Amino acid sequence: MIYLETNSLDPTWNLAYEEAVQEWDQPEDVMMLWQNKNAIIVGRYQNAEKEINMEAAKTIGARVVRRSSGGGTVYHDMGNLNYTFIRPINYKQRIDLTVLSKPMEQALNLMGIPALVQGRNDITLEGKKISGTAQRIHNKKLLHHGTLLFDSDLDNLQSVLNVNPSKIISKGIASVRSRVTNIKEHVPAEKYPDMQAFWNGLIDAFGKEAPLTRMNAPDHLLERAKFLQETKYQTWDWNFGRAPAFQYRNTKRFTGGNLEIDINVENGLISECRFCGDFMGLVDLDDLEKTLVGVRFIEADILKKLNEIDLPLYLGSITAEEVINCLFEANS
Asked: What's this model's pTM, rounded to 2 decimal places?
């Protein structure tokens, strides 16, 4: 397995670098460890203005950047360590999200940290979340990445994230702060006294499972990352531009995540639609949204069209019936 580091704390560079690695035409699995300095990373299909307390973000100087994978919004600081795994994949292969998180669970266990994969995209420690993950399929490769709260400022995390009330109700929690924890609080101080010791411990643990080959990224990859940084991750359009006005809008929470659907209808036909949420889709939604354009705005026609495509690739475990429920039933 190739091991890479981004050598940067800039979220726009790190996300661009990560995408460039996923596009890299080489057959080996890749592992990355990296950090962002004081950043809020928005899921690909989320409305940034809804997910983030912008005033709080401004107060602490946190940058807002959208990533290319689905899932929810996360806060990064120097007490958080990010990891990425990239490997070739059969595009039609079914993805078990819990299996993807198992290598990290096992590595943490080898380090004496009793972490446990729980739910669709979380790793927990003594019942509290220490990691959230997300995935993306691109260039015939699967990217799986996540956070590791080692010694993060949980008060800042609490202040900058707007939690959907339905998520709080469905999980029976009072706040973000009450359901997350730092790894450092659960391990002896002499074992992992600081982030560097924890970082090195992870490398050693993964090295026991499979040899890691440290590499410097080739020049063409760095050039591609620079291009993606400047034309995508540093732009307002990418980070904030996914919130147009629509005639019809509804939001519901399902087991597979929050789903918001915006629809324009002309002469009884869908003329434009947009899906947003923290669902665990694997590919871009453009094809799904285009598929519904021109379909009559009635349940049977939309359900038929949804059943003709591989919906889990786009919406994770959210079903066609749940999409219909969101479109045609009142919010509850």
From this structure: 0.83
Burial class (CB in 10 A: 0-12, 13-18, 19+), 332: exposed
Whole-angstrom distance, CA of residue 79 vs CA of residue 39: 12
Q: What's domain 248-328's architecture?
A: 2-Layer Sandwich (3.30)
Tens of pLDDT, residue by residue over 194-252, are: 999 999 999 999 999 889 999 999 999 999 999 999 999 999 989 987 655 568 888 99
Distance (Å, rounded) from C-alpha 269 to C-alpha 247?
13
The secondary structure element, H or E, covering residue 254 is strand 248-254
Q: Looking at the DSSP assignment, which residues form a beta bridge with residue 312?
A: none
Pick the CATH number of 2-240 from 3.40.50.150, 2.30.42.10, 3.90.226.10, 3.30.930.10: 3.30.930.10
Q: How far apart are CA 182 and CA 195, in angstroms?
A: 12
Each domain of the chain, given as residue ranges in start order, spans 2-240, 248-328
Q: How far apart are the first and last CA of the chain?
A: 47
Q: What angle do CA 322, 325, 329 make, to 5 degrees?
A: 165
Count of H helices and E strands in the chain? 13, 14
